[in-house]
Every structure is written in structure tokens, then in C-alpha cells.
Design goal:
about 450 residues, alpha+beta, Alpha-Beta Plaits, Chitinase A, domain 3, 5-stranded antiparallel beta sheet, 4-stranded antiparallel beta sheet, 13 helices, 11 strands, extended
């Protein structure tokens, strides 16, 4: 076969493959032998009709397509090996001619990732501050948790608890239905049902109300954002909260017990400080990765973005409707989107994830960040711990694929730690094997160092 190769932008190579007539003839003969037993031709037993008769019966084109179904993958694989291409995703194939057979294969190859002078990157860390008002809000929340709840015969006031039935309709479709649910009548706790907090105030036991509100433009369920919602609410019971006094006796009841309110406050302050430090660290990591991506020069195949969109679609649809194609269709019906619209909405996120993966992978490579089998074993032992489920946890992760996941997570964690050291000017000297700070990434996004997301 005759093969020509042309490198095109976005880390792709176009192979034009012309199949030899002799090889095509052999494939046609093999196709005939596969098809003949399935064809019923008058005057011949199954599989006994000559090829010429089968071709006349089916048409040469039908037999040719049967031959090409197996021939095309074979010749494309051979051409990729002959050209020594490092393919990172399934190539796009097109048969441009049948006489002779010419195949055009657009092969996605290893991305090019140049991080530039990444060791000169600097990002200013944010201070981890504790808001004293948050300390007081936490104390108030603790008092509410230990409050005495009593049914009361009066209209609803802010801070009460209410048992109610509630439904919500958008454009004639029920999007909310809860019966005999207890809620705290506070604006922040009813923020996910706009308009309900204000309407509940002043209502009494047994009272019903029907009213409308408009969902905000940034509403969590994007398909409902900005639309009017019609509520029906029935108050079943009104309860008041009698908060405990904020004194040392109360402090001794909380959690493991504290000697005084001052000790309780200090513990809350320490917990909030630790949370603030974690959040500041996360923001610093995000800014560092963003700076690294912005500085990098990247070239990667569009197929990687499409594959990442596939993963995002799976993540969206799996919790709502299970697995597989039917799950996707159910989800699209729920959100009122076509698959094309959904994929376009996800394209920007997928592109950023691919870029992030590629630059972190390249950084790990340049910085010589590696994980040994012994370290994987230590992490596995740490995951299992001494809990009653330790044996099940070890069984779950103690597989080649499980250990690969652990290795990737450890490498990811260390890569982010190194990046933070770099952008804050605390990194050790560059490894001697670093060489030029440019070149191709050693991994595809699935293999790249991907830090665990802050949520799930």
C-alpha cells in the first residue's frame, strides 16, 4: 500500500492510504467467503454459489463494503505503525475513493506542551483570616441545634420551625413536591426556594397559600433559571425555638464538652482558621494552575476535548438516571436540551480540563515527580486503616487499576505541591535532568496528573 503523511495543526497527522489492488482482491475474496453462507440464491446450497454469482446477486458495492469493514482498520493500523505515530485517540476515517480504494485517516498524536519559564511564575498567597462574625454565627447555630422545640399557636415568625406541604410548578410542570417537611424559617435556609421565606411569615397553622416568584438567573437547576415558579403551601404546624443561654453550662453540653464559653469560642475559631487555611490553599492552587495554563503554549487534538465532554456528560447523567444511552436521553429530556446543545455548553469546561491535565502532566515530567510502588503500598495501607471495612477497602483498591489510580492521585498531589512551591518562591533547585523547559507532554489527559476536585 502507498502511504503519505501530512502534519496539520492541533497535533494531528493526516494519512492518505492507497490500498494495493492485490490486497483489495484478497479482502474481497475473504468477504465473499463470510457472506456466501448467509445468502440464499436459487439453485445453490448456502455457501456454494460462486463469487461471481454472489456479486451479481448482492451487487459489487455491497461486497466491497463488507471487505472494507475489516480492511480499513487493518491498513490504518499498519500505516500508523509504519509512520511511527504515537496515537492518543481514535482516528477519524474517511474513504475518499473506491476505485482505487483510498483512505484518509486523521490521526490525533501526542500533544505539544511548552511551559515556558515556568519557574519564574509567581502568585501571591491570600491571607487565611477568621471573621469574628462567623464565630458568633457558629455559636448561634450551635444554640439552635440544642434548642427546645415547642408547638405554638400563633402566626409564623422569623426563626420558627414549620411543618408544611409544598409544591412548585414551572410552566405547568411540577418541579418541587414535599409533604410534611419541617423547615427553619430563615432567609438563608430557604434561599433555594425563592419567595417562600417572605410568604411564610404571618401564616398560621392550617393556612394555605398559592403565590408566584421568579427563580434567579444563577439558579442551580439551569433549565429553570429566570423562570416564574408557582408555589402551593399549606402550614401543618408552627413551632418555636427556645434557645439555651450562652453560658459555661451550655459549653459543657456541646460536643465532647468545653470548660467555658471562652474555650468553646477558641475551638470554633481554631476550626474556622483551619477551614480558612484550607480554602486559601485551594485558591492558591487554582490560581497557580491558571497562571501555568495561561503561560503555556499548547497544541492538542480536538478529539481529547470531545472525549472529555463524554466524561462530563457521563458525570452529569449518571446520578440522575443510571448508566448508558438511555440515561443520557432521560437527562436531556429533564433539562430540555438537545445533546448537541449540552455538549456545546460543556465544551469550555472540557477544554480547560484538558489544558489543566496537560500542563500538570508536563510539570510533573520536568520536575521529575514520581511515585514508587512502596509509596503506593503505604497509601493503600493508609486508606484501609484499621476500620472494620479495612479488608474490603484493600480488596477494592489492591488491583492493577486500583493501584494505578492511587499512583496517579499521589503524583497529582505532589505536582500541585511542587507548583505551589514554585509560585511562592520556595521550590528546591530544578532537577538536573530537567533539560530544556519545552517539548511534548509525556501523557494524555487521562494519564496526566489530575488533582481531585474540591467537591466530588
Amino acid at each position: 500500500m502507498n502511504v503519505t503523511a501530512e502534519r496539520i495543526p492541533d497535533s494531528q497527522v493526516v494519512l492518505t492510504i492507497e490500498v494495493d489492488p492485490e490486497r483489495l482482491e484478497r479482502s474481497m475474496d475473504q468477504a465473499y467467503r463470510r457472506v456466501a453462507p448467509r445468502v440464499r440464491i436459487p439453485g445453490f446450497r448456502p455457501g456454494k454459489a460462486p463469487r461471481r454469482v454472489v456479486e451479481l446477486h448482492l451487487g459489487r458495492e455491497a461486497l466491497l463494503h463488507e471487505a472494507l469493514d475489516r480492511l480499513v482498520p487493518e491498513v490504518v493500523e499498519e500505516a500508523i505503525k509504519a509512520q511511527e505515530l504515537e496515537m492518543v485517540a481514535t482516528p477519524d476515517l474517511e474513504i475518499t475513493s473506491l476505485e482505487p480504494v483510498v483512505i484518509k485517516a486523521t490521526v490525533p498524536v501526542r500533544p505539544n506542551v511548552d511551559l515556558g519559564d515556568y519557574r519564574a511564575l509567581r502568585v501571591e498567597p491570600e491571607p487565611a483570616e477568621v471573621d469574628e462574625a462567623e464565630v458568633e454565627r457558629t455559636l448561634e447555630s450551635l444554640r439552635r441545634r440544642y434548642a427546645d422545640i415547642e408547638p405554638i399557636d400563633r402566626p409564623v415568625q422569623e426563626g420558627d420551625r414549620v411543618r408544611l406541604d409544598i409544591t412548585g410548578e414551572v410552566e405547568g410542570r411540577t418541579v418541587l413536591r414535599q409533604e410534611d417537611v419541617e423547615v427553619s424559617v430563615r432567609a438563608e435556609e430557604l434561599a433555594n426556594v425563592p419567595g417562600v421565606f417572605e410568604r411564610l411569615l404571618g401564616m398560621g397553622k392550617g393556612e394555605e397559600a398559592e403565590f408566584e416568584a421568579v427563580l434567579p438567573e444563577d439558579y442551580a437547576r439551569r433549565e429553570l433559571a429566570g423562570k416564574p415558579i408557582r408555589y402551593r403551601v399549606r402550614v401543618l404546624e408552627v413551632k418555636s425555638e427556645r434557645l439555651p443561654e450562652l453560658n459555661d453550662d451550655f459549653a459543657r453540653q456541646v460536643g465532647e464538652g468545653f470548660e467555658s464559653v471562652a474555650a468553646l469560642r477558641e475551638r470554633i475559631r481554631a476550626d474556622l482558621r483551619a477551614r480558612a487555611e484550607d480554602e486559601a490553599k485551594r485558591r492558591l492552587e487554582e490560581k497557580a494552575v491558571a497562571a501555568l495554563v495561561e503561560q503555556a503554549r499548547l497544541e492538542f487534538p480536538p478529539q481529547l476535548v470531545e472525549r472529555e465532554i463524554d466524561h462530563l456528560v457521563q458525570d452529569l447523567t449518571r446520578p440522575a438516571a443510571g448508566e448508558g444511552r438511555r440515561a443520557v436521553e432521560r437527562f436531556l429530556q429533564q433539562v430540555g436540551r438537545s445533546e448537541r446543545e449540552l455538549r456545546e455548553e460543556l465544551r469550555s469546561t472540557a477544554t480547560e480540563r484538558v489544558k489543566r491535565s496537560l500542563v500538570l502532566s508536563r510539570l510533573a515530567e520536568l520536575e521529575g515527580i514520581a511515585v514508587t510502588p512502596e509509596e503506593v503500598e503505604q497509601e493503600l495501607a493508609s486508606l484501609a486503616g484499621t476500620s472494620p471495612q479495612a479488608a474490603q477497602i484493600r480488596q477494592l483498591f489492591d488491583t492493577p487499576s486500583g493501584r494505578e489510580v492511587i499512583e496517579r492521585q499521589l503524583r497529582s498531589r505532589r505536582t500541585l505541591e511542587r507548583l505551589v512551591q514554585i509560585v511562592t518562591g520556595q521550590a528546591p533547585a530544578a532537577p538536573p535532568s530537567q533539560g530544556q523547559v519545552a517539548g511534548a507532554s509525556g501523557e494524555t489527559p487521562e494519564e496526566a496528573a489530575q488533582p481531585a476536585p474540591p467537591e466530588a
